[in-house]
Amino acid sequence: MSALPSTETLALPQGPADLPKRVAVELLARMSAEGRASIREKAREDPVWFIDYLGFTFDPRLPGEEATIPFLLYDYQRELIRELVARIDAGRDLLVEKSRDMGVTWVMLAVLTWYWLFRPGFQALLGSRKEDYVDNGQLGSLFGNLAWFVDHLPGWILPPGFSSKKHRRWMKLVNPHNGATILGESSNPNYGRGGRFSVIVLDEAAYWPDIEAVWRSTSQSSPCRILISTPNGRNYFARLRFSGQIDVLSYHWTRHPHKDRAWYEAEKARLVDPAVVAQELDISYDRSIRGLVYPDWEHVPKGHYPYQEGWPLFVAIDFGINDPTAMIWAQRDPRTGTVRLIDCYSNRGYPADFYIPFVTGEIPTDWPYQYDPEEREMIARHGTWGIPIIYGDPAGAQRSQATGSSVLDVWRNHGLSVVTNPRAQKFAERWQATSMLIRNLEVNLPDCASLDEAIAAARFPERPADHRSTNEIRLPVHDWTAHFRSALEYLAVNLPKLTRRTPPRPIRQQMAYDRF
Length: 516
Prior knowledge:
Layout: H1 19-31, H2 33-45, H3 47-54, E1 56-58, E2 68-70, H4 75-90, E3 94-98, H5 104-118, E4 123-128, H6 131-134, H7 142-151, H8 164-167, E5 168-169, E6 172-174, E7 181-186, E8 199-203, H9 211-217, E9 225-229, H10 236-241, E10 247-251, H11 261-271, H12 274-280, E11 302-303, E12 313-318, E13 325-332, E14 339-347, H13 356-360, H14 373-383, E15 389-392, H15 407-413, E16 418-419, H16 427-437, E17 441-444, H17 449-457, H18 482-494
Parallel strand pairs: 3-9, 3-10, 4-7, 4-8, 8-9, 11-17, 12-15, 14-17, 15-16
Antiparallel strand pairs: 1-2, 5-6, 6-7, 12-13, 13-14
C-alpha cells in the first residue's frame, strides 16, 4: 500500500473546485492537524471556497447514493454567494427572483451554515409559507436540508461539543461554541416581530399569504431581509421587485450551464400549461391567468382618487381569524354614482376588536393591542374621515363556541353596527352585484395596491377536461386573493341604489311678472 503524500507536496487547492481538488483537500485533512487547521482557516475566510470544497447537496431525482453530490458550484452560484454575504454584512435587503431548479435555496442554506460556523453570535430567521416547508424533520424542508448539509460536512470542522441530537431541534440549529443560532418560523402576520436577527430569509416569498404584513413586521427585526422566489403574478412580491427600493438579483434558467433551448422546449412540453411555464421558468410576472373572476377589472380607472370631503363613506369587511381579515374603504360620488375605493387593510391572527381603531380612527386608552407606525398613521388618517357605514359578512353573526359572542356582537359592544345582507351568502349574487359595480368604479393607488393585486388575480378553478357544463357558477379559488375579493363583494351587495344622480332642478314659486 502506497504512503500518503507529505504536507510539503500537497498544497491547499485554490480557485473553482473539481473532484480531484476536493480529493486533495480530503487527503490534506487526513494527514495532520496542521492540514485541517489550514483548511478550516481557508473555509473561514472564503464562503465560496468553503461550499465548493467541503459542501454536499442532494438531488432526490437520482438513485441511491448518487443522490448525494459534491456541491461543485456553477459561476452564477459563486456570484450569488458573494452577493448574499455582501448584503448580510452590509445590512441591506435583497430580493432574488429565479427560475425553478437553480439551486438558489441550497446556496442560501449553505451560506447560513458558513455564518453559523464562523460568525460568533450570528442569528438568522429562516421561513417559508407553511410549517412543514420550514421543518418537518425530513429532507425537502428547509431545516431538513440544513441539517443534512451540516451532517455531511467533515466532523472536524463542526463546532466543539456539537451534537445533532442536542443542538439540532425543531426549527432550531445552535452552535454551542460561538452562540450562533438559526431559527425557523412559518408565515404569519407577526413573523419575526420582536426578535433581533443578523438576517431574515423568506423562501418562496411570492407565495406567502401574509407577505405584506410580514414585510412590515420584520422591518425593525433585521437590517437584512432576503426574499427568494419564483414569481406568482402581480402580487406584493412583484410590487417590491419593481419598486426600485430594494436590491434585486435575477437567476434565469439560461444562466445554468446544463440547461439549453432543447431542455427548455422539453420542459414546456412536460409542464403543458403556458402559465406554469411563464411562472416557473420564464420569471414572468404578467403570466396569463385563465378563468379570472372579474376580467373587467383591468378596465377600472386606477390612480390618484383620494378621500373626498362630503361624500358618503363606507367600509366593507371580510372577517377572519385563521384566514386574513380584509377591509376596504369606499366613497360614492353623490352626483354621478361612481364608487371610489380609497383605502384598504389586511391582517391575520388577531381578534375582531383589533380592527376597530381602523374604523373609529382612535386607539382607546389601555387598548390591549399594539400597532406599528404605518398602522398608526392609517388609523390617524381614518380619524379625519368620520365613522363610515360598515358592511360585513352575514356569517359574522355566528357565535363562537368559546366566547358565546359573534364578531358582530363584539363590534356592537363597541358602538359599531355592521350591516349585512342575506344576498351576500350566495356567491352568484355577490358575483353579479360586483360585476355591475366594477363598471362604475375607480381605485385610489397606491393606497389600494394590495386590493388591486388581489382582484386582478382572483380566478376560478380550472374545469376538468370532461366537464360539460358551461354555465354553472363555480366558487373561486380560496387563496391569498379571496379576502379582498370577498370584502369588495360585500360592498357591492350592500350598497343602496342611488335614486337620484343629479341634483333636482330648483323649484320656485310662479311670480306675477312671469306672465309678461
